[in-house]
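Practice problem: predict the structure.
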Amino acid sequence: MPSAIVTGATGILGREIVAALGKDSGTWQTVHALSRNQKESYPPHVKHDFIDLTGDVKAMAKQLQGIEAEYVFFAAYLQKDSEQGNWDVNGAMLKNFLDALEMTGATQKLKRVILTTGAKQYGVHLGPPKQPMEESDPWIEGPGRPPNFYYNQQRILADKAKHASWDWVVTYPNDVIGVAKGNFMNLGTSIGIYAAVSKELGGELVFPGSETFYTSFDCFTYSRLHAQFNLWAAMEPRCSNQAFNVVNGDTESWQNMWPKMAKKFGCKVPANQFDLPLDKDAGSVMDLAPDPPMAETAAERGLQGKVAPGKVEQRIDLIKWSQRSDVKKAWQRLAAREGLEKDGLERATWGFLGFVLGRNYDIVLSMSKARRLGWNGYIDTWDSLSECFDELAMEKMLPRTSS
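Answer:
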C-alpha cells in the first residue's frame, strides 16, 4: 500500500486531505501530516510530524529524516503583505521542501506531487477574466502585471520533475468553503459572523457587497470535495503533469443563496435591500487593474476595446462594519451567551470577504477537463456552505443555527 505526505496539514484544504486519507486505511499505509503543531487527534496510520517550511533546506532535511512516501500533497501557504513577498516565500517553501526530500533520499520512492494553488491563476483578483475559465487559458503575466506566486510554484514543480522520476498535478480551487480548527481565515466563518451579528442587531440580513455581483455567478470549492479530487488525481495516470480546476460542479449566485442563508440564521432579507439608506461613509469602491485579465485575449474574441476594468463595490465596507461599536457589542453578547470564541470578530478576514462579495464580475470555472478524465465529484454549493456553518458551530466559532 502507498504512503502519503501532506504539508499544510492544519489548513483549510490540507486538513481535509489528511482526513480523507485517514478514513481510508485500507488504501493508505502511512500518512505523514506535516505542520508546526497538531490541532486534533488522528487515526493510528496518520502520524503528525513537525516541520517549519520557512527554514532552509538542511533544517528541513533534518526534520524529514525517516519520512518518505509515494505521494506528496503540498497544501501549505503563507500569506505575506505583498505579491512579491508571496512569490518569494511560497516559492522558496516549495523548492526547499523538494530539495530536502531529495537530500534525505525520499524522492527515490516518490511517484507524484499534488500542489494546491487557486483561481488566482486566472487573475480573478485583477478584474474580469475570460468566462468560463479553462486550464488552457494564458497566464496573466508580463510587463505591468504583478507577480503571481502560483506561476512561480508551478514552474518550480515542473522544472524539478523534468530531472526526477516523479510527476505532478496542480489544482485550482476557488472561493473555498471549509473549516480549519482555530483558523478564522475562511469564507464561511466571516460570512457566518456577519449573519449572526445581523440577527443580533435586529434580524435584517443586508447583502454588503456589489449589487451587480448579487445577480452574477460564482463557483465555489468545498474543502472535502477538493480532498476527494486530490486522492483521485494522485492515482489517475492520465492526470500526469496536468493542472485542473476543482470546483463543486454547480454555478451559484448570491440571489439564490442569500435568502437561504437568512433563513438558516433566522434573519430576513429586506425587500428593497439595495435601496436602503446607508451612512455616506458605510461603503467603499476600489478600482482594479486598468487592463483586466480578459483584455489578454479580447482581440481574438472580437472584444477589443469592450472589456471594462473591474471594481470591488462594497455597499457596506466590512472592515468598517466590523469596527462599529454596536457590532462589537453584539458579538460580545453572542460570544458570552453561546460560549463562542471572544476574539472571532476581530480575527475574521473582513477584507477578503469584502473582496469576494464586492467584485462586480462573474467567476465561472469549467470542470470539463477533469470530467473528460472520469472525475464525477459534485456537491451542491449551498449544501456545502450549510454544512460548514454547522461544523463551525460545533467548533464554537459560530452560534448554532437552524438545519
